[in-house]
Amino acid sequence: MIDSPVPPVVEAFPIRNSTPTAVAALLERVTKAIEQVGKFKPEGLALAEPTSGTILVVAPEAELLWWKEQIERFDQVQP
What we know:
The chain is of the alpha+beta class. Helix content is about 35%, strand content about 20%. It has a 3-stranded antiparallel β-sheet with strand order 1-3-2, with helices on one face.
């Protein structure tokens, strides 16, 4: 039997206070900065889905909690 890699999970997170595009852009900038500064390198991606008001995260299942926490942190009312 050949071991096949585990496919990533796709999870939708609702955005309540901001816009999916704004939160996804901020997440992209933050994850790049984290990669430059530390040893943690998120494997997943956050994709804005403006029509549904969500962010789709494509990531290993073990990373989903981290992405959820970051999305909640950055989903703030825009001034």
